[in-house]
Design brief:
The N and C termini lie far apart (62 Å). A three-stranded antiparallel β-sheet has the order 1-2-3. The chain is 52% helix and 7% strand. By secondary structure, it is mostly helical. It folds into two domains: 4-50, Rubrerythrin, domain 2 (Single Sheet); 51-405, Citrate Synthase, domain 1, CATH 1.10.580.10. Helix 7 packs parallel to helix 8 (194-203), helix 12 crosses helix 15 (336-349) and helix 12 (268-281) crosses helix 17 (363-373). It contains 18 helices and six strands. It is globular, with a radius of gyration of 23 Å. Bound molecules: carboxymethyl coenzyme *A (CMC).
Length: 428
């Protein structure tokens, strides 16, 4: 294959280098095109635009493949642990037994947050969505550790800041929930594993003893692994672009949390359950809602269906669907919403509209059902996604800074008014 692409603009031909990735993906490097020809490329929503070269996650949406640092998601979900996957994503390699123990120890040592965070938390009314509280608390970390996230000063400090945020996110997440339900916050317990400690801070109360159910802690660990990275999605791109201005790690991660919140991205897991409950309350007529989703005059979309990059089954959805059955079985939970979800999936997979557009269930279609079975309240679903996605965001931010990527600054095609004279207000 020639490693040059040619483009003809108004009779002039320009040569553009072709880049090939390690999985044989092909990209045309247009970075010099404007300088040569005056033309830019346009691609709203970056549907066909690569923003970076990355060595973190490989995804093939046509073949339903997802790998972190080369390791298939199925193997990681079944055999690894969330902290091991976090280590893998952030450092590039699986840890040795000693490295993992050391990493786990460090994380459990930093779970406590400064007492002043309680004052910040107190300022949020109980109507606050936990995602807003979470992003605010993560931004507030910049005030407590002002210089520790600047690689220009010290990568050693940055690496400590990375451990800090991985350790403190469950504390922030659980406290955001406690604030919402008006219960006293629980301090972290460093003798517990990552997910059991989170569950303890979420559901524990000072007056009663709480022991996390290992079935629940294991299921959460698996869900966090499945969400840990997904290459250049909306929130990861946000983290990279905010970080490209050399904003701090914590500021960039907070921006990522806000990007994730939207219902077209991580907020879909909450939206799916609300949709399924709505269908149930409406009598459970799945076909009626399918028709609404297909009607271009109706803004309703089937939440949890479709994906920008998966044009085949989302491999994460397959694992989660199986896990949902296992978890519900193990906990003896019967959820009528699961039957509606299965019915909806069955109808959608045979419907021409969904087949033509290659719309399959995505990761969020079944994750909400598991979270519900595990006792996680609906408004916390997207927070759970954020907990899982954290190492991915960190890895993306770190890679961007290590590679000294330039500030993200797209161009535009201006379509507004051409130059015109200002008219004073009395003459308008
Ligand atoms: N229900 C009905 N129609 C849909 C849906 C849906 N869920 N998703 C896409 N379509 C249609 C869309 O109307 C369009 O039809 P047409 O070609 O006739 O105009 C076509 O399918 C292509 O959709 P698109 O909006 O151009 O695709 P996109 O890549 O811009 O959007 C998406 C991807 C995920 C935002 C979209 O599929 C969607 O809104 N899904 C529902 C929300 C959701 O589940 N989001 C979670 C994504 S997975 C978690 C994550 O990683 O963020």
């Amino acid at each position: 294959m020639s490693n040059i692409a040619e483009i003809n603009i108004n009779g002039n031909t320009y040569s553009l280098p072709i880049i090939e990735g390690s999985e044989k993906e092909t990209a045309i490097d247009i970075s010099k095109l404007r300088g040569q020809s005056g033309a830019i490329t346009i691609d709203p929503g970056f549907k066909n635009t690569g923003s970076t070269k990355s060595a973190i996650t490989f995804l093939d949406g046509e073949r339903g493949i997802l790998r972190y640092r080369g390791y298939p998601i199925e193997q990681l979900a079944n055999k690894s642990s969330f902290l091991e996957v976090a280590y893998l994503l952030i450092t590039g390699e699986l840890p040795s037994a000693e490295e993992l123990t050391e990493f786990q120890k460090k994380v459990s040592r930093h779970t406590l947050v400064h007492e002043d965070f309680k004052k910040i938390l107190d300022g949020f009314p109980s109507t606050s969505h936990p995602m807003g509280v979470l992003s605010s608390l993560v931004t507030a970390l910049t005030a407590f550790y002002p210089h520790s996230t600047d690689p220009a000063r010290s990568w050693a400090q940055v690496n400590l800041s990375i451990v800090r945020i991985i350790a403190k996110m469950p504390t922030f997440a659980a406290w955001a929930y406690k604030n919402k339900v008006g219960q006293p916050i629980m301090y972290p317990r460093n003798d517990l594993d990552y997910c059991s400690n989170f569950l303890y801070m979420m559901f524990g109360l000072p007056s009663t003893e709480y022991h996390a159910d290992p079935v629940i802690a294991d299921a959460i660990d698996k869900l966090l692994i499945l969400h840990a990275d997904h290459e250049q999605n909306c929130s990861a791109s946000t983290v990279r672009i905010v970080g490209s201005s050399q904003a701090s790690l914590y500021a960039s991660l907070s921006a990522g949390i806000n990007a994730l919140w939207g219902p077209l991205h991580g907020g879909a897991n909450q939206a799916v359950i609300e949709m399924l409950e709505g269908i149930r309350a409406d009598g459970g007529n799945v076909q009626k809602w399918m028709n609404k989703a297909k009607d271009k005059n109706d803004p309703f979309r089937l939440m949890g269906f479709g994906h920008r990059v998966y044009k085949n089954f989302d491999p994460r959805a397959k694992i989660i669907k199986r896990a949902a059955d296992d978890v519900l079985g193990a906990l003896g939970v019967v959820d009528p919403v699961l039957d509606i979800a299965k019915g909806l999936e069955e109808v959608a997979l045979q419907d021409d509209y969904f087949i033509e557009r290659k719309l399959y269930p995505n990761v969020d279609f079944y994750s909400g059902i598991i979270y519900r079975a595990l006792g996680i309240p609906t408004e916390m679903f997207t927070v759970m996604f954020a907990l899982g996605r954290l190492p991915g965001w960190i890895a993306q931010w770190k890679e961007m800074r290590e590679n000294k990527e330039p500030i993200g600054r797209p161009r535009q095609v201006y379509i507004g008014a051409t130059e015109r004279e200002y008219v004073s207000i009395d003459k308008r």
